[in-house]
Amino acid sequence: MKEVRVRFAPSPTGDLHIGGVRTALFNWLYAKNKSGKFVLRIEDTDEIRSTKASTQVILDAMKWLELNWDEGPGKELPKSAPYYQMKRKELGIYQKYSDELMAKGFAYSCYCTPEEVDEMRKKAQANKLPPKYDGRCRNLTIEQRMQKEKEGRKPVIRFKIHESDITVLNDLIRGKVEFDNFLLDDFIIMKASGIPTYNFACVIDDYLMEITHVLRGDDHISNTPRQIQIYNALSWKTPQFAHMAMILGNDGARLSKRHGHTSVLEYRKEGYLQEALINYLALLGWSTKDSQQIFSIEELIQKFSIERCGSSPSIFDPEKLLWLNGEKIRSKTVEQIYELFIEWLKYTNNEKIIEGWDKEFLKKTIALEHDKIKLLKDIPLLVDFFFVKDIVYNGDAVKKVLLSEKSKDMSRFVLSTSVERFKNRQDFSSDALEKYARDLAVEKGIKPGQVFHPIRVAVSGRTQGPSLFHMMELMGKDEVVRRLSVTVSKFFNLGGKNV
RNA sequence: GCUGCCAUCGUCUAGCGGUUCAGGAUAUCGCCCUCUCAAGGCGGAGAUCACGGGUUCAAAUCCCGUUGGCAGCGCCA
Predict the structure, then answer these.
(1) Can you say how many angstroms the Cα of residue A123 is from the centroid of all Cα atoms in its chain?
(2) SS3 content of chain A, % helix, strand, coil (to 5)
(3) Mean pLDDT throughout A36-51?
(4) Cβ < 7 Å from strand B, A residues 374-433
(5) What are the tens digits of pLDDT across the range A266-310?
(6) DSSP letters along A423-479, please?
(7) Straight-line distance from CA A307 to C1' B7, in Å?
(8) Residue A422 CA to nucleotide B31 C1', Å?
(9) CA distances from A312 to A179, A218, A248 (A)
């Protein structure tokens, strides 16, 4: 059996967005599943919008996502390199096939200006006909051509479309789709600049790179009949096509800025894990029989198949992605999370956040907050109070737990008593501390919570946080006593006044 | 306007003629656990399977039409 070869062919005209990643992912999964090859090809034939920066972003994003390509930029194989279309253009690759089509009578020079073509389309549309180029340059005589050239017109090359019959596409996802050739017009394959257009370059390269399966978004489905006609004209066998349904925003419109992040790298900045994004995207447009939700990358590779790709569009749901990210983080060891966190700090230039923080201590605090972490960027927010000298007291927490009429006397008592009793304590283990707190409650005839809560606020400045006694054990006796004393003097001992 | 694609809980989806008064996930609500917040466990609500016709003993599942959404119709990709 022939080796499966698939490709991801982005154009470097902007950031790599969610839809693009999904296309790349499905191709990659398919290649891996079939032990085939995944090719990355940069379609930079848009001379105005293509940028180097954008190419770099795509490469970086692919690397971050670990969607590694077998062939592509940095992994050139003599047979199909180079992988940038503009470089291929330099080599005359497209020109060669354009000439061949011309020689065979499948293409011709067209001297019409964009304005003239626009005019034709408008006219056609006004008559409720499909907006097409009318083919007026199809049969120009040599003299007519010379005349046009003399006028200074630079020709484009148009492909002579088969106007009768239908073109049949046997799509792996959608089944048989038929297109009426009458609706197609003689489209441009080579621009006046000598640069090939998408529909042409794409076919030439897919053929030359021996792509066996073209898996792409269904926004390309109407391009397919044109491409099929080129394959036929060149007597080439077409690859298998599979058009996946698109990913839309929550209002059903095409995914754009107003639906949240548009670039994948934004998700990286937020602290999403590569595997969470991959897992989530795999769920959009593909499913298993048992509707499994959580997959490891390995599992995805093993279970992926084109047959189980759906044909209806899906809406991107940031909430589910967030859940999945938390799920992935929970499944990691503290050591792994720590590594990921450090990586994230570097990537976002936030290393100063943990300046002076003890690494091992940081890991222990992460362990305490492990199942609360949804994004890597949450980590500092969750554990920073362990590291600062002067903790920030949350206003509501102070008001409610320390200073409310109902609780202030008891809080003052609990805190000042604890300062004294802790000073001479030997055993500062969480179990012992919990016993201490419960005993104190019994001693005073109050509820355990009336002891726990003020201590929590005094030691962390907040009402929410890790398990209290584990947190105190980790801080250690000296620091707990210090924080307790600071709190007492700050809120209860200022000239006898409650601030 | 023309053409194509699509149509099951808010969202992602299972379902490929009967075993489904439609299953899972997320979100939401409630209960339990509990020192707080999470996590976890349990449970609830949530889908006249877009609508209308057929086919069939039997349809979410097959066919046709309607409506709606999306996409394409560039010297963009």
Answers:
(1) 42
(2) 50, 10, 35
(3) 96
(4) none
(5) 999 999 999 999 999 999 999 999 999 999 999 999 999 999 999
(6) HT-S---HHHHHHHHHHHHHHHT--HHHHHHHHHHHHHSSS--S-HHHHHHHH-HHH
(7) 20
(8) 38
(9) 20, 10, 11
